[in-house]
Structure prediction request, 97 residues.
Amino acid sequence: MEGPNFLVINPDECIDCSVCVAECPVDAIAGEQELRPDQKHFAQLNRELSRHPDWKRITVRKSPLPGHEQWVGVKEKFRFLERQSPRENDRALEEAD
Ligand code: SF4
Prediction:
């Protein structure tokens, strides 16, 4: 599933075949059983975001996003996670007013 700047795998649909783990060129995928203690929260995050109504299922191969090389070595990327598109963020802010 694809969000504004992040991809997730639905743990409830994954059959743990590990094909994607080996295919990811930047080691960004780990099986749920292989997660380190400091990574365990990502399983719940993947579950939550794969149910987000605005996140879309990826059904065709896509090219890497522009600038993807700049993110390979960046640590603590979690703080950059966007759950909603800018338009949804604006709507949420309007509803909060
Ligand atoms: S390729 Fe990855 S996401 Fe798909 S079923 Fe296998 S382990 Fe799960």
